[in-house]
Design a protein that fits this description.
Layout: E1 4-8, H1 12-23, E2 27-31, H2 35-43, E3 47-48, H3 52-58, E4 61-64, H4 69-82, E5 88-91, H5 97-109, E6 113-116, E7 119-120, H6 123-127, E8 132-135, H7 139-152, E9 155-158
Helix pairs in contact: 3-4, 4-5
Length: 167
Amino acid sequence: MTATVGVLGLGIMGSAIAANLLAAGFRVVGYDPLPAARRRLRRDGGVAARSGADVARRAPIVVTSLPSVEALAVVAAEIARAKRKGLIVVETSTMPLAAKQSFRAVVESAGGRALDCPLSGTGAQAKAKDLLVYASGARAAYRACRAVFEGFARGHHYLGAFGNGSK
């Protein structure tokens, strides 16, 4: 059986992450509020979900790539609504650390685990799988995500406690 990964946010970075995960053999379930982004995911071979909560229910690891602090808060609430124990959320957006810490609190209050994973690279580099992941958070969650990181990035580094990637 193919491992399933969720992707929330299918803009420039998220769609490239999803495409690379599909090319690496993962089943990708994704959501974006823009219908065109969901259609592109389906066209690329992924599964378009109905909401962020739907993605969280269907995938044990979810990658978030979001455009704003407001979007991060909305997605945190959707993930929490799924109430999936053991869910790992890989937060890759460029956001203030305080916003990521609030995101983490919401995800973990619902039984999930959050990793702070800023990316080094541009949208063009993301398409070429030329990203670096700077992961911070629980080491066990990082270990569980290594194959996912290798599916969309050329390298990944563990930096310790949550937030170290964004400091």
